[in-house]
């Protein structure tokens, strides 16, 4: 895996900038992932910089691949045509008044 080769040069903990480079996104995007709790991180010191442990980043990436796989399977499922499962508003026939 590509990440394991990079880990030796980056060390155990990654900075926000290093993480952004690995994910090919902005540092702001990484900070947003940390703030939302999607990407676990620790602070060095009381108000120091965020650090992301390399295995945690690998698990985050694996989780995103799994999420994408499940979304792809969901999109292929026949049940997505049903409004109850697709999130579309439910339209029920109304009986005519006599």
In terms of topology, how is this protein built?
Layout: H1 2-10, E1 13-14, H2 16-23, H3 27-36, E2 42-43, E3 50-53, H4 54-76, H5 83-86
Antiparallel strand pairs: 1-3, 2-3
Helix pairs in contact: 2-3
Please, could you describe this protein's structure?
By secondary structure, the protein is mostly helical. Helices cover 55% and strands 8% of the residues. It contains five helices and three strands; from the N terminus they run αβααββαα. Strands 1-3-2 form a three-stranded antiparallel β-sheet.
- Sheet with the most strands: spatial strand order: 1-3-2
Structural class: mainly alpha
Give the topology string: H per helix, E per strand: HEHHEEHH
**Count of separate DSSP helical elements:** 5
Low-pLDDT runs of 5+ residues are none
Rg over C-alpha atoms, rounded to the nearest angstrom:
21 Å
Mean pLDDT across the residues is 82
Approximately how much helix is present in the residues? 55-70%
What spatial form do the alpha-carbon principal axes imply?
elongated
Describe the main β-sheet briefly. 3 strands, antiparallel
Distance between the termini: 70 Å
Number of DSSP-assigned strands: 3
Estimate the strand proportion.
5-15%
Describe the structure concisely.
The protein has five helices and three strands; from the N terminus they run H-E-H-H-E-E-H-H.
């Amino acid at each position: 895996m590509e990440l394991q080769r990079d880990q030796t040069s980056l060390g155990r903990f990654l900075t926000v900038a290093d993480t952004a480079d690995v994910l090919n996104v902005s540092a702001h995007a990484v900070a947003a992932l940390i703030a939302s709790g999607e990407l676990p991180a620790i602070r060095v010191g009381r108000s120091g910089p965020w650090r992301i442990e390399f295995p945690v980043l690998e698990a985050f990436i694996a989780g995103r691949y799994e999420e994408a796989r499940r979304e792809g399977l969901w999109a292929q499922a026949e049940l997505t045509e049903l409004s109850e499962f697709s999130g579309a508003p439910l339209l029920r026939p109304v009986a005519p008044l006599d």
